[in-house]
Amino acid sequence: MKRLFDLKFTALFIFLTLHVFSAAAQSVGKIAGKVTDKKTGEALIGLTVKVQGSTKGTSTDVEGRYSISGLTAGKHTLVFSYIGYSSKSVSDIVVKASQVTNADIVMEESEGNSLNEVVINVSARRENIGALYAQQKNNVSISSGISADVIRRSPDRNTSEVLKRVSGASIQDGKFVVVRGLSDRYNSAQINGASLPSSEPDRKAFAFDLFPSNLVDRIVINKTASPDLPGDFAGGVVQIFTKDVPEQNFLEVSLGYGYNTESTGKDFVANKRGSAEWLGFYSKDRKLPSDFPKSLSDLNSNTSELVNASKKLPNAFAEKVTTALPTQNYQLSWGVRKDLKNEAVFGSIVSLTYRNAQNLLEYQRNDWDNETRTNPLRENIDSQNRYNVTWGGLANFSYKKGTSKYSWKNSYNRVLDELYYNRQGQHFVNLVNTQSRNSDPVERSLYNTQIEGEHQLNTNNLKLNWNLNFADISRDQSDLRSIAYQKNFSQPDGEYSLDPRSTRRFFSSLSEQNYGANVNLSLPFEFKHSKSTFKTGLSALYKDRDFQARSFQYEELGNANATLPYDQIFDPSNIGMNGYILDETTNPQDVYAAQSILGAGYLMVDSKWEKIRAVFGSRFEYYGQRLDAVGPNLRPADGDQDYFDILPSANLSYAITDKSNFRISGSRTVSRPEFREIAPFQFYDYQLSAFTQGTSSLKRSSNWNADIRYEFYPSDGEAFTVSGFYKFFKNPIELFANSQSNADSRLFEFINSTHAKTFGVELDFRKKMNFLADADFLENLTLFANATLIKSEVKDQYSSWREKRRPLQGQSPYLVNGGLQYSSPNAGLSVTALYNRIGERLSIVGYQGYPDWFENARDLVDFQVSQKLWGEKAELKLNISDIFNQKVRVYQNLDDKNSYDDSLDRNIYNYRPGSNYSLSFNYRF
User: What are the structural domains of the chain?
Assistant: First the structure.
């Protein structure tokens, strides 16, 4: 299939979707919601809900949720009652035909027996405001989050877009989260309470663009620790909770197409692509043949066998020129709810997503040898062609009955990235002009499955939840191929000849399995007039990784013709004694195996008085790491480590008013190295023109954190918070440039610095503009912004030459997010303008004579408009992102300014990603 999803396929997709599921319009609707305690924010289980003036009613389940169907269209009143709580009557709940009306309720405890008969009367709108306050104010730790209701009213399509709206969070490369300016390695992620494995085997990061936003129930970013959270973080723990039991049956289909100003419609160059690569699967031609020798070094004494082996790799260097197609997005989501006998419920949500993108970049790359040199050692211009296929599925199944819930949740994602580029350059030391072509493909997959249960064990609200999870991760690079030519400056009219040292073929395979389990138990109790909860739990996570790679170079023999074109020089007729053969350059370091085991337990007390809430306790984590690899000295790498960490934490909040809190927090956490950071394997990155190598003796970082915060929630959807924080890192992990390397063989490696500290201030507000005047337009107009200012300093054993301390590698000095959103529920129109800027951050630590690499700041401006159609069943969205299309630039900073100066600083690489215009349409049945 040469062209993915042409118009015929799109039409077929829509036609089949329309016939898979259909629902007749009815004159009845449903009310559903969640009931929580006002003071604690905890779900109330077994609470009675009745429809006033009818016999309809139900009780809340183990999650505090209720659902009443078969209600006629119009206004209804619900009465909520629970032992020990004042009853509440909520009026003016509007039910629409064939729709679900959400009504989340907050209940207040009775102060005495006489109050048990008191009924509090409120309107539905006022109660929704109270529910929002309870959710925002009752988080255990200092956190920021976003609920399904806010997500539903935004035009965001995936989780990474949603995260950009959360205070103190920014998104890097369109998918990786940055919390409080700290890079991805200082953050952790969870899905439905289980640790989320990294989607990037070479870094501690998760690509949040893999999850569709319409399947997310809520997202919470915990910025301070509590004993029931994992201890491996310093920036934040991102918790994603996906939907599992829908309020009603639905089928939703979404189609989207995008135009990139730098790419779409232009010539797109690559090697021949396999027939299944549009689905994210390599062609078999890219893999090493099954009969290929296990080691070419064993054939050195038998030239004929070596020639035969060399011919087994096809000549795949020919280019094919096509046209860069528009970016394409497709999504199909299907939800089923079945109400069973005895108020039992079965629910399922299944979703499939697909994305295909083709982008072109003009990429300028330089390198230098010392601080005083005014001209680069090397200068390259790349015409890069990036092909990306991402698809995945999510399937969640849940059964709820009474005080128990069981779920089986699954997700699968597959990504194929291929970077092909044509590089033209000059090497000013060797005095040669250079040409090279490179095809760098990466195939990745991630499967995650978990079985979980949630139970209330008795009438004393003893609660138990448990989770068993498994993840399988793979990453393959099949036939990373490069071919290079050069000619001398002294012969400008001469022919280019092959440079065998820079002509390579590389194959690697990575496989990792994660096995996890956790169990948590919470028991409410009374202590000195305080309503308290004791919570304890255990968790375990075992990881097992295997990696192997093979690399080859072409060796010139006899009278080989080195001036043949790139698409002919390795034809089978030129493989032999008077041509070229493969020479294996695989090193002993190109294979490693690693395992780790994490065992954790915690004790935690959550005590609540009238205005004070104190959450304190400790987490205990044992971490064991094993590495089976060979170091650069050909001796076994010493990567085995064991740690037992006691991680105390305390969070104290004081309710100044019903709408405001004051919080203070202190904790100890850790940041552990990833397998890639300890493996001595050296990988050559053609884009950076540098090797990256792990360090087997790398230690985990020990972090101390302190936070203070004031938060104020004046009305529905409005917030004002100001926070201060301080962090101290012992043995932080950073990426350094090796001082023994040079521009021809630049080497980056992971090293522990001595210590580092960061401190900062965070400000966030969201305000409706109706304070200017009493007008419907201003009621629907919201201004929001958050800004974080951060100062960081590092001490390391290599910086005695520095005049002043440098910032922490990966730490941004500031983040700014802002926007203006108009959302009219009656008109179904939403218009949003967004602004984002991440300050200059240290990318790679340099050495004396070779200055640090910095990533320059960029102004990102996005515009989104969405319109509901056909009674809110359909939605049309227009998105314009990165309007200014400013350059992405990494540079060496030669002055004290915190921005790039073209007359003083030195460019390492830069490119323009292009502005994106996309149009999408989704329909919900």
Answer: 28-138 (2.60.40.1120)
